[in-house]
Each structure stands twice: as C-alpha cells, then as structure tokens.
C-alpha cells in the first residue's frame, strides 16, 4: 500500500516510467481518490487551485438528478388567465393585508395612548403653585401602581433637565453677539433710529 | 511645488529678506508692512485679512452645505452686498424644509422663522454656521489659536490655500479652512476633534462675486422689517463661585442668574468665549438638578455635569470632554456663606 502510494507520488512527479502504476490506479478506487487529492493539493500549493478539495460534486449531483421525480409545469389557473379577474384577486388579497396592517397600527396607537395617559406630560411650571402646602401627603389608591413608573419619570425628568440646559446654552450662544453689540452701542451713536 | 515657486518668485521680485522656510510658520509674527490687496498674500494672517475684506466689502452670493456628524446635510444660500448708499446688507437662507431666513441691514438682523413671529435683533453679524469672528475679525482669534498655512489644494474645482487652525494649548477642537486663491473666498471649513476626525464640515458648492448688488436686495423693503427688540440688561447678584481654569485666550463674556425657559429652575450662569467657541457654565443646587455625574455628546457640543457637594456644575460647549472636565473641577466657591 505504502509502496503504491510512493509509486503514485513518483509517477505524478514524472519519475516512474513503467505503466504498471496506471493499471493499478485504474483498478484501485482508493488510489484513484488519492490521485485526485494529490492533484488538488499540488494545484493548491502552486496557487492555481480554483476548486476546494472536496468539490467533486458531479457524482452527488448525478445521483440527486436520478432521484428527482419528473415535474410537469403546472398550467396557470383559468381565473388568472382572464385579465380582469386575474388582477382583482391579488388586489383583494392585498387589501386584506392592508386591513390587517392598519388594525395593528391602530392597536399600537391605542396602546401608546393608554400607556401615556397616567404619566402627566404636564408643561413645566415656572411659578410655584399657590395652594395648600401643608404636611399632608395626598392619599391615593393608585400609589402602589404608580411605583414602578417612578423610575421612568425620574429618567424623563433628568432628560428634561438636560434638554433645558442644552436649549438654554444654544439660546445664549445665539444672543451673545447681540449683547456684546448692545454694550458697544452705548458708546457708539446709533446709525438707525 | 508650484506654489513654492510662485511664492519664491514673489519674494524675489519684492526683494524680501525673510527666510524662505518661514512661509509655513510666519503667521506668528504680526505683519509689519501693510499688505497690498493686489499682491498675493504670503502668510496665513494675510490670507485671513483678505477673506475679511472680501466678506465685509464685496457683493457675493455663496451656496454651501453644512454637514455635522449624525445629522443630515443642511444647504444654505448666503448673499452679501454693499448698496449704493453704503448700507451693508446680508442674507442667509436655509434652503431645506420650511426654511429660516436672516436678513441683516447694517447692524440689525431680522429673523424669519416658521411658527415664530418675525423679529429683529441688534447684531453686526448674522450668527450662521460659519463662525462670524473668523469671517469678520480673525485677528482677535490669534491669542487663542495658531493659524498655519499648509499649502495648496483643490476645493470646489478651484485652486485653494489650506490653513490649519490649532488652539495654542491644544484644549479645543481644531479647524481646517480652504480659501480660494483667486478671490480669497472661504471654500471649505472643517472642524476636527483632537484625534483629527471631522466633526462638522462646511463646503461651498458655488459662489459668485459681482460688481453690482444682487437684485434680491432691491426687493427688500427695509421699512417693513420688524423693529429691533431691546434686550434688558440683567443686573444680578454676585455669584458665590469662580472658574479658576480656562483654556488660553478664553475669557468671560457674560454672567447672570436666571430661570431656565423649559423647567423654570434657577441657575447661576457664566459664559466664556474665545471667539470661535462659547462655553456655558451653570451652577445650581444639586437637589433640584440632575443630581449625578453625566457626560454626553450633543452633536458637536459636550455636555458634562458634575455634582460637587450641594452644587451641581454643568459645562456645555463645543470643547473636548477633558477640557470641560478641567473647567468643571477648577470651580471653587468664593464665599463660604453661599450655597
């Protein structure tokens, strides 16, 4: 066996002149496989391989084709062959899909509204509200329910505070030049009434 | 290469005795001789002076786009003219969406925005995406920034001179600008972070310089522009804190105590500026503020808030985070009784 291998290798390198090895390869499947592998390896090493080593698909494809049942192309349905009806049916199907999508969207909107309702998106109070400011905490049945949302409110409040600062900074930058100019205006005489 | 030759030729003809290599760094020394407008500028400062004289005295129309990281590109149209009676008029129009139009007649800027009553403010410049001091008064930036002439480049299909703008203590973002060789017009402006990544870019796509003012300005009825609103100068109590560290060239331009428009919180406020960037410093009681340490990036601005004892310090501005942190941690209270 190893002798055969060596011979095969030598034959591929063109060092064996006798024809016995060719006959041996013809008869021995294992040697045939080796023959192929050696060639793949050689061409890979020479960087001319365009196939992966296990790429001999011909046999498997041939086998698969043998097993494949014959398929007769189906005739198009007679309804569809009539132009008008053929167009109507997919349209109907489409509108059904659309209806489903629309109802989903509606549900989403309802859901959002429902979620948003308890959290008061109240605008900022710039002045302290006048009213009873006693030590009585307002009693509410909902207190336990609102607890999990406290964290979200905190995050929102934080975001609002950050946004307030960013908006203020941007406004101050916008108005900076105005103030500098106004201060200079005091010393200069105005060119426009 | 060609640039060096022409500069060399220019130097020879005027029999300058400046060393040849000083071309790249000579912006540091002030230009002694009055630069002739017809002569080609040789230093970055001369180029900026040329830009300034063009911006303030020529009739031009410029189309440019502004691109900011994480934002859509915004196109602008910018016109300027000197009318027959010497009045300087300028227009800046945001070209996408409902738009925004600013019209300046001498030192009054009228603002037309969607969903807002038009109003006018007193300002010598239109506060647009291009830093107005860079255009109108670049020499004031010299104490904070170094202007380095880099060389020739091609921008918007035209030969241009590239100038690098670097803060002297490397605490602020840098800029690169390209000026048209023929006219001196600004063609491109990049804002770079400390690693050299582009944060914001202004790219001119087309510009024309004309002899006569654009017909657009003849259609403006100056008497129909809104009257300027006067800003009440707010006199406020002294702050109990002081900023001890500032980047080179930055100085205080404003301080007051007021309420934030969105939340009504009372803040003590100082603004610092070096002409190119403005930094806001807010100090407020920690219990009604964010109450923690947060650092985030809003477009090109840095937002840093730190809780220091009972006070919350917030720094906002187009500066690197480490600079914001250095400013924030340098704040100390002046009088013990406050806060």
UniProtKB/TrEMBL annotation, chain A:
- Report the leader peptide range: none
Q: Which GO terms describe its cellular component?
A: plasma membrane
Q: How does it sit in the membrane?
A: Single-pass membrane protein
Please describe what this protein does: An anti-sigma factor for extracytoplasmic function (ECF) sigma factor sigma-E (RpoE). ECF sigma factors are held in an inactive form by an anti-sigma factor until released by regulated intramembrane proteolysis (RIP). RIP occurs when an extracytoplasmic signal triggers a concerted proteolytic cascade to transmit information and elicit cellular responses.
Q: In its UniProt entry, what is this protein called?
A: Anti-sigma-E factor RseA
Anti sigma-E protein RseA N-terminal domain span: 4-77
List, alphabetically, the Pfam families matched.
Answer: RseA_C, RseA_N
Q: Which residues form a coiled coil?
A: 152-186
Q: Which family does it belong to?
A: Belongs to the RseA family.
- Give the main localization category: membrane
Keywords annotated in UniProt: Cell inner membrane, Cell membrane, Coiled coil, Membrane, Transmembrane, Transmembrane helix
Question: What does the UniProt entry say about where the protein is found?
Answer: Cell inner membrane; Cell membrane
Cross-referenced InterPro entries: Anti-sigma-E_RseA-like, Anti-sigma_E_RseA_C, Anti-sigma_E_RseA_N, Anti-sigma_E_RseA_N_sf, RseA
UniProtKB/TrEMBL annotation, chain B:
Signal peptide stretch: 1-24
What are the UniProt keywords, alphabetically?
Answer: Periplasm, Signal
Question: So which domain of life are we looking at?
Answer: Bacteria
- MucB/RseB C-terminal domain sequence ranges: 236-331
Q: Which intervals hold domain MucB/RseB N-terminal?
A: 45-226
Task: List the record's Gene Ontology CC terms alphabetically.
Answer: outer membrane-bounded periplasmic space
Q: Which residues form a coiled coil?
A: none
Entries under InterPro entries matching the protein? MucB/RseB_C, MucB/RseB_C_sf, MucB/RseB_N, MucB_RseB
Instruction: Provide the protein's localization.
Output: Periplasm
Q: CDD domains attached here?
A: RseB
Is Signal among this UniProt entry's keywords?
Answer: yes
- PANTHER family hit by this protein: PTHR38782, SIGMA-E FACTOR REGULATORY PROTEIN RSEB (PTHR38782:SF1)
What name goes with this protein? Answer: Sigma-E factor regulatory protein RseB
């Amino acid at each position: 066996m190893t002798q055969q291998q060596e011979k095969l290798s030598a034959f591929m390198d063109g060092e064996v002149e006798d024809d016995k090895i060719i006959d041996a390869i013809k008869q021995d499947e294992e040697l045939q496989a080796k023959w192929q592998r050696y060639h793949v390896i050689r061409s890979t090493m020479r960087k001319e391989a365009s196939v992966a080593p296990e790429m001999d698909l011909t046999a498997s494809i041939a086998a698969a084709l043998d097993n494949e049942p014959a398929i007769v192309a189906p005739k198009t349905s007679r309804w569809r062959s009539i132009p008008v009806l053929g167009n109507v049916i997919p349209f109907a199907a489409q509108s059904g899909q659309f209806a489903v999508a629309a109802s989903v969207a509606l549900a989403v909107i309802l859901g959002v509204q429902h979620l948003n309702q308890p959290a008061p998106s109240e605008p900022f109070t710039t002045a302290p509200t006048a009213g009873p400011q006693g030590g009585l905490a307002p009693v509410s049945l909902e207190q336990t329910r609102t607890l999990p949302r406290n964290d979200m409110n905190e995050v929102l409040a934080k975001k609002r505070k950050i946004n307030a600062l960013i908006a203020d900074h941007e406004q101050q930058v916008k108005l900076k030049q105005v103030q500098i100019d106004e201060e200079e205006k005091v010393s200069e005489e105005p060119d426009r009434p | 290469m060609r640039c060096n030759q022409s500069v060399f030729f220019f130097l020879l003809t005027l029999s300058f005795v400046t060393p040849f290599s000083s071309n790249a760094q000579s912006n540091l020394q002030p230009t002694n001789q009055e630069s002739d407008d017809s002569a080609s500028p040789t230093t970055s400062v001369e180029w900026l002076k040329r830009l300034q004289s063009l911006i303030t005295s020529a009739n031009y129309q410029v189309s440019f786009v502004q691109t900011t990281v994480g934002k859509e590109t915004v196109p602008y149209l910018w016109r300027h003219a000197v009318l027959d009676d010497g009045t300087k008029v300028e227009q800046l129009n945001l070209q996408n969406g409902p738009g925004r139009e600013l019209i300046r007649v001498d030192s009054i800027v009228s603002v037309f925005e969607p969903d807002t009553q038009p109003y006018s403010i007193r300002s010598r410049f239109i506060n647009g995406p291009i830093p107005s001091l860079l255009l109108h008064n670049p020499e004031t930036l010299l104490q904070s920034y170094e202007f380095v002439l880099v060389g020739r480049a091609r921008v918007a299909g035209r030969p241009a001179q590239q100038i690098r703008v670097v803060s002297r203590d490397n605490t602020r973002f840098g800029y690169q600008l390209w000026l048209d060789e023929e006219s001196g017009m600004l063609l491109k402006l990049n804002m770079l972070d400390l690693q050299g990544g582009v944060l914001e870019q202004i790219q001119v796509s087309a510009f024309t310089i004309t002899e006569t003012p654009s017909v657009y300005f003849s259609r403006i009825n100056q008497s129909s522009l809104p009257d300027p609103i006067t800003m009440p100068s707010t006199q406020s109590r002294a702050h109990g804190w002081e900023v001890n560290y500032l980047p080179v060239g930055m100085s205080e331009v404003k301080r007051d105590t007021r309420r934030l428009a969105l939340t009504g919180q009372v803040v003590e406020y100082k603004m610092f500026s070096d002409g190119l960037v403005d930094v806001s410093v807010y100090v407020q009681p920690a219990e009604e503020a964010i109450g923690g340490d947060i650092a985030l990036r809003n477009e090109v601005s840095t937002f840093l808030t730190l809780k220091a004892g009972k006070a919350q310090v917030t720094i906002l501005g187009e500066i690197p985070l480490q600079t914001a942190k250095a400013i924030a941690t340098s704040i100390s209270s002046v009088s013990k009784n406050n806060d």
